[in-house]
């Protein structure tokens, strides 16, 4: 299943085919979702902000976990060729020009021609079954990455409990770092969560019949008991639904052994992990990461597990630009040993919190890092181990650093972002026993002058 056809081999050709139906069409609004069952929130992909699923709606209709009034309104706009405001990330990429490929193309290309034609004729109010779904059972996590927050990490909650809110952040309109985000975990571990039960009800009775891929995220999903309940269902039912899991892979040997065992007992198992830097810089950005343990776990998983795919998601923030090309070298070296698909990397440009965006850096540093990435692509662009999508994502980042001026439409002016960059990392260093200047000598020199 794919929109790829002999006459649609390139991303640009796929995009033009989608646009022949609607210049704003993205099938994620119908067939893809992320649902955070701990908070009762959903979105069609990671770019639009999540919105709440009303508990009353799911009691008799678990499909309402996905088919919300907000998504239905966005479907209507897309059928009319209008741009839903929540999808601003893709519009910003497309408006760069230069044939930049936005994520709505990648979110749509996984489906078939029939799916495109079908949604254009479908009543936008219709409840549809998903084809691809990402769920999170809860926010339990042993990491507290710098660009994350208490809504997605219990370690971040611990930080706020111990040290209090981060102070003097002007641009953090969503108050990512000022409170514990208790609404992100509405039910205690020993309580029945009606959102979790609605998911299992929908999945076991109906959804597994239409779903092509289920992806599990967190927090760190390997720390949730619901994860093992789901894996047991897969093993016992010999399901054809592809299973994928996000994991930071900061896990002990016993948990890794257990995970490897399940990869051999589930027919199609893919794993997504995250990183975007090397050495101490990676450990600084992703607090809790032991880079040696991570690399060792990757090797053990690829050596002894049975994975149908292995992916590395890079969250491109300001700090990671200092060693991003070195990390891409690591990806290529790993591909050389394990094969073209182990790993496949994606470069996901961070927009929130805005003061950690790559665009917060001064022009001279953005230009410096842009040229380094250009040099890397010039040298490696013809490497047969790279997918077209990976090459396009590297080029997209180059264009982003060159053209785009603000992270998103609601961003504050640059002095406010610079203030928050300084204020946040001063407090982050003190709380986490880190040192930005010694860890990032290039960015640190600019940071000292703020």
Q: What structural category arises from helix and sheet content?
A: alpha/beta
CATH C-level label of the largest domain: Alpha Beta
Let me know the CATH homologous superfamily of the largest domain. Answer: pyruvate-formate lyase- activating enzyme
Which CATH architecture of the largest domain would you pick? Alpha-Beta Horseshoe
Q: How would you sum up the major sheet?
A: 9 strands, mixed
Low-confidence stretches: none
The percentage helix is 40-55%
Distance between the termini: 51 Å
The total strand number stands at: 9
How big a fraction of the residues is strand? 5-15%
Report the average pLDDT across residues: 95
- The backbone outline, from C-alpha atoms, is globular
Order of helices and strands: HHEEEHHHHHEHHEHEHEHHEHEHHHHH
Number of helices: 19
Rg over CA atoms, rounded to whole Å, is 21 Å
List the domain count as a whole number: 2
How would you summarize the topology of this molecule?
Layout lengths: L10 H9 L8 H4 E5 L4 E3 L7 E2 L2 H5 L9 H11 L8 H7 L8 H6 L4 H9 L10 E5 L17 H10 L30 H12 L7 E5 L7 H13 L4 E5 L6 H13 L3 E6 L4 H7 L5 H14 L4 E8 L7 H15 L5 E6 L13 H18 L7 H16 L10 H19 L3 H4 L1 H9 L1
Parallel strand pairs: 1-4, 4-5, 5-6, 6-7, 7-8, 8-9
Antiparallel strand pairs: 1-2, 2-3
Helix pairs in contact: 15-16
């Amino acid at each position: 299943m794919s929109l790829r056809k002999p006459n649609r081999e390139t991303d640009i050709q796929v995009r033009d085919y989608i646009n022949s139906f609607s210049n704003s069409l993205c099938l994620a609004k119908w067939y893809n979702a992320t649902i955070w069952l701990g908070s009762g929130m959903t979105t069609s992909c990671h770019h639009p902000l999540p919105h709440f699923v009303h508990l009353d709606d799911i009691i008799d209709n678990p499909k309402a976990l996905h088919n919300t009034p907000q998504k239905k309104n966005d479907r209507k706009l897309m059928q009319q060729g209008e741009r839903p405001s929540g999808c601003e990330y893709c519009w910003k990429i497309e408006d760069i020009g230069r044939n930049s490929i936005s994520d709505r193309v990648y979110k749509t290309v996984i489906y078939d021609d029939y799916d495109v034609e079908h949604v254009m004729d479908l009543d936008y109010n219709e409840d549809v079954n998903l084809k691809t779904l990402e769920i999170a059972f809860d926010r339990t996590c042993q990491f507290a990455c710098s660009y994350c927050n208490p809504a997605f990490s219990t370690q971040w909650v611990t930080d706020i409990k111990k040290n209090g809110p981060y102070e003097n952040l002007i641009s953090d309109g969503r108050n990512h770092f000022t409170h514990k985000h208790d609404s992100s975990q509405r039910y205690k571990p020993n309580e029945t969560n009606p959102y979790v039960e609605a998911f299992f009800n929908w999945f076991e009775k109906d959804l597994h019949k239409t779903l092509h891929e289920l992806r599990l995220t967190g927090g760190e999903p390997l720390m949730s008991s619901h994860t093992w309940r789901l894996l047991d269902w897969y093993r016992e039912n010999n399901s054809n639904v592809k299973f994928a899991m996000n994991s930071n892979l900061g896990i002990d040997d016993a948990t890794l052994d257990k995970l490897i065992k399940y990869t051999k007992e589930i027919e199609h198992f893919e794993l997504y992990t995250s990183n975007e830097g090397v050495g101490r810089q990676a450990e600084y950005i992703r607090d809790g990461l032991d880079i040696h343990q991570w690399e060792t776990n990757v090797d053990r998983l690829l050596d002894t597990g049975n994975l149908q795919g292995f992916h590395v998601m890079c969250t491109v923030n300001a700090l990671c630009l200092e060693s991003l090309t070195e990390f891409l070298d690591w990806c290529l070296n790993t591909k050389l040993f394990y094969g073209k698909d182990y790993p496949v990397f994606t470069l996901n440009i961070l927009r929130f919190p805005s003061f950690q965006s790559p665009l917060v850096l001064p022009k001279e540093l953005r230009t410096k890092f842009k040229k380094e990435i250009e040099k890397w692509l010039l040298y490696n662009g013809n490497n047969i181990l790279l997918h077209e999508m990976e090459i396009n994502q590297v080029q997209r980042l180059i264009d982003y650093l060159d053209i785009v001026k603000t992270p998103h439409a609601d961003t504050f002016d640059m002095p406010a972002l610079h203030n928050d960059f300084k204020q946040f990392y001063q407090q982050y260093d003190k709380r986490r026993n880190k040192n930005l200047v010694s860890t990032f000598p290039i960015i640190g020199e600019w940071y000292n002058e703020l």
